[in-house]
Design a protein that fits this description.
eight-stranded antiparallel sheet; about 850 residues; mainly beta; about 40% strand; 9 helices; eight-stranded parallel β-barrel; about 10% helix
Length: about 850
């Protein structure tokens, strides 16, 4: 990484990530998924670290697991008005939990080394093996591991115990509780590649050539000097070899060494948002020509450049970051980080136009970044929400001084090879950023990251944007601005004011209000020094309950609200109105039709603060308003077309412009009558704003271009709901107990139109090689169970999530509701 000129940061990076197999094998391989066959107890269990402890009455389960999303004992709901977490945690309950697992290891592995690897445990975990404490790990979002070679028993039974303590007020959002990510058992030869020991970087050496540098840290845990050969082969996404390096080395007993190998790639395929091409570096160790350790590191070839003059360049091309902030929970699954759940979130965001994600406010799961690599999603990887000054009494500030170095190292070493990661964030809205001692902490963190990974920019998200934050911003490469736009693009934004003060500063809108989407995005496209905007939030989440409706200040009487209700995408993965508006900002020829309900969707909060703008307009895609015949309803159209014409039951209600001057929106007052609202989007430009119906000839005479229609959208009045429609996102999933199918359940009339007023209870039954692991409907005030076999519809739909079993076979899901025929679908697990 180097700086060139005023305010310019140029970086060239090729990234990779160690790829773990996600399959449980009958025998031990290098990386063994350790998720199956655990016992769990919610609450205290004195002596449970001892192997002889009786856990026969404990719950049997497979990981990943989150006990906070499960029903509270003796209830049918995970929510409690008196929960310690209150609004912040969505009225869910943490506490203490215990996990235990028994396993055996054959004696023929006596010369192997064993590492126990946890991707994430929330929080304050301590681990024992066979009664011996391996250590503890306070932070709930970083990965960690223990060398268990001296504690493991060969041929005899091993007992692994994990205590997890999510106690007190420690988070500003829903954290979940437990071992919510994967666990792995690594079985390694004594001479092996270190955990996170491979770093892949490259630089382009010409138009058709790249040099790949593979630095591999190899550990000799034997009591003898080792002579060996290292062979690294670069494999393309298509499976062919692109280059190879071979070297011989010697490492003393008990030592480790970093080994550099350079490989030239001819005509490299660059990783980008549009074409996320991936390579794999396969590293093999040979001792006396006998193959030993073998690792695979996936990486991408791309260049990064940031400057106040040209903005962000990916592979030399300007890219504006169409970004969103994302918390780690998976809605109805809670914090459980199934690979498919993580992948699905990235898929949905990519389909909705996002090209960048800010992981708020912690490192994500490895599976999430793997999906970003494969799908072409850029990432800001963030470390902390606080440092040594608290935001909650029992949060990470209690551990920061002792643990920050190992936690930052965990994030950077684990994630540094992902091509999707373009920035590291050292923290979000850190308290007292204006104070010199906090600026010193920021410099300490930023310098440590640059030393560990010099190939990426360092940022931090800052609110309360005033000149007193200048020293804090000075230690960063990219200045993260939270809520800088002001929303009205006609009003001078803080970005431009600060650019005049500090012209070399590179800025990113690390958080913005949904309600200010227009102004926030115009600031990005008009100013090269503003490289992108990240809305709060891209995906809705549990916790910060009702921030997107009742707003601030938050109180206990917000219960039963439990969702934030501020995401572009709701917790089931369905687009909300603001996401369709963002389509109009980001894409050509977009069109959607919305109705303001005659009565507010939820009770309003008269005390909501004027600055609290995480909500969106009260809008629904619903033309069923029995009892309101003839009453004027407000109809809004979000469109990136030049003009839109609205029809009610075939009668034109006039054309209106929907360009930038109109903020890509047009509004009609429409007397309600059942039937069809139809909007037609047209290309072309107009010299007048047409507010009343006109014939095409009249419009031409007024200087109005009438061109071909490019898109049509309709809202229709639905009949009585009489049918259940089941639509899975995938009909074929993988066996093994980890893959998922998300099934959308819609209540429709006879012609098949979803009735948005339907709220019937739907009960689910399942047969075959699968199980129901979650249900949801995205209703932010629903107190229903996420883990039961039934769910009420909301806006005419709900969702059920099915997980594959270990064995292959068919899965049959049935949905029933009184007055409806039973619906049935089949899913194949193979």
């Amino acid at each position: 990484m180097k700086f060139t000129g005023k305010g310019i940061l140029i970086m060239v990076l090729l990234s990779g990530v160690l790829f773990f197999s996600r399959v449980v094998h009958a025998q031990y391989n290098r990386n063994n998924l350790f998720d199956a066959g655990w016992c769990f107890h919610r609450g205290g269990a004195q002596g449970a670290e001892n192997p002889s402890f009786d856990d026969s009455g404990w719950k049997k389960l497979d990981l990943p697991h989150d006990w906070s999303i499960e029903d509270l004992p003796g209830t049918g709901s995970p929510f409690d008005r008196d929960a310690v977490s209150q609004v912040s945690g969505g009225f869910t309950t943490g506490g203490t939990g215990w996990y235990r697992k028994r396993f055996t290891v054959p004696s023929n592995l006596k010369n192997k080394k064993f590492m126990l690897f946890f991707e994430g445990v929330y929080m304050n975990s301590e681990v024992w093996l066979n009664g011996k404490s391996l250590g503890r790990h306070p932070y709930g979002y970083t990965s960690f591991w223990f060398d268990i070679s001296e504690s493991i028993s060969l041929d005899g039974e091993n007992v692994l115990s994990v205590k997890v303590m999510n106690e007190g007020e420690n988070s500003r959002w829903y954290s979940g509780s437990g071992i919510y990510r994967h666990v792995w058992l690594q079985v390694l030869p004594q001479l092996h590649v270190d955990t996170w020991g491979t770093r892949v970087t490259t630089r382009l050496t010409g138009d058709n050539e790249a040099r790949v540098n593979v630095n591999t840290n190899i550990v000799n845990q034997s009591d003898q000097e080792k002579r060996f050969r290292v062979v690294t082969t670069i494999i393309s996404e298509y499976g062919g070899s692109e280059g190879r390096a071979e070297s011989e080395y010697v490492i003393e007993a008990g030592k480790s060494s970093g080994i550099n190998q350079n490989i030239q790639i001819i005509k490299p395929r660059l990783w980008s948002v549009e074409t996320p091409f991936l390579y794999t570096a396969v590293t093999e160790i040979y001792e006396n020509e006998v193959p030993g350790d073998r690792t695979e590191t996936t990486f991408g070839i791309r260049t990064l450049s940031f400057s106040s003059a040209d903005g962000f360049l990916l592979n030399g091309k300007s890219v504006k970051l169409k970004g969103g902030c994302v918390h780690h929970d998976n809605g109805p699954l809670g914090a459980k980080a199934y690979d498919r759940a993580e992948e699905r979130r990235v898929e949905i965001l990519k389909e909705s136009g996002f090209n960048a994600i800010r992981c708020s406010h912690n490192p994500p799961s490895p599976a999430f970044l793997d999906a970003c690599d494969r799908l072409g999603m850029l990432v800001i990887d963030e470390a902390f929400d606080m440092w040594s000054r608290q935001k909650n009494p029992y949060d990470y500030h209690l551990f920061f001084n002792d643990w920050w170095r190992s936690d930052v190292e965990s994030m950077v070493l684990r994630d540094r090879n992902h091509p999707s990661v373009i920035m590291w964030s050292i923290g979000n809205e850190i308290p007292d950023r204006h104070k010199p001692e906090v600026v010193e902490q920021a410099k300490m963190l930023a310098d440590f990251i640059r030393k560990t990974d010099p190939g990426r920019a360092v940022t931090s998200a800052v609110n309360d944007l005033k000149p007193d934050k200048d020293p804090y911003f000075a230690v960063l490469d990219i200045a993260g601005y939270n809520y800088a736009s002001g929303g009205d693009h006609n009003k001078e934004s803080l970005y431009r004011k600060d650019h005049e003060r500090v012209p070399g500063r590179i800025m990113a809108g690390t958080e913005s209000y949904p309600l200010e989407a227009f102004g926030s995005w115009m600031d990005v496209i008009d100013n090269p020094f503003v490289i992108g905007d990240f809305v709060w939030t891209a995906f809705d989440y549990i916790g910060e309950a009702s921030i997107g409706w009742r707003g601030y200040w938050q109180k206990q009487d917000f219960f039963p609200w439990n969702l934030a209700y501020c995401g572009d995408i709701d917790i089931c993965g369905w687009k909300r109105p603001q996401s369709y508006y963002r389509d109009a900002l980001w894409k050509e020829n977009q069109l959607s039709v919305w109705v303001t309900p005659p009565v507010p969707s939820f009770e309003l909060n008269p005390d909501r603060q004027s600055w609290s703008k995480w909500h969106w307009l009260d809008a629904v895609d619903d033309w069923n308003w029995e009892g309101y015949d003839g009453r004027s309803l407000e109809v809004s159209v979000y469109s990136s077309c030049a003009q839109v014409e609205l029809f009610l039951n075939g009668k034109s209600l006039g054309r209106k412009l929907t360009g930038r001057p109109e903020k890509f929106m047009a509004i009609w007052q429409v007397p309600y009558q059942p039937g069809t609202l139809k909007a037609i989007g047209y290309q072309g430009k107009s010299q007048v704003n047409i507010q009343v119906p006109h014939q095409p000839e009249t419009l031409k005479a007024l200087g109005y271009q009438v061109n071909d229609q490019v898109i049509v959208k309709e809202l229709k009045s639905a009949g009585k709901p009489v049918r259940i429609r089941l639509t899975p996102d995938r009909t074929v999933i993988r066996a093994g107990g980890q893959d998922l199918s998300y099934i959308t359940v819609e209540l429709t009339d006879n012609p098949g139109l979803r009735n948005p007023k339907a709220e019937n209870q739907v009960t689910f039954e399942i047969e075959g090689q699968g199980s129901i692991i979650g249900t949801g409907n995205a209703n932010p005030v629903s107190l229903e169970s996420f883990t039961g076999n039934e769910r009420k519809a909301w806006h005419g739909r709900c969702m059920v999530i099915v997980r594959s079993a270990t064995e292959r076979g068919n899965i049959v899901l049935r949905a029933k509701s009184p007055g409806f025929d039973t619906a049935e679908i089949q899913i194949k697990s193979e």
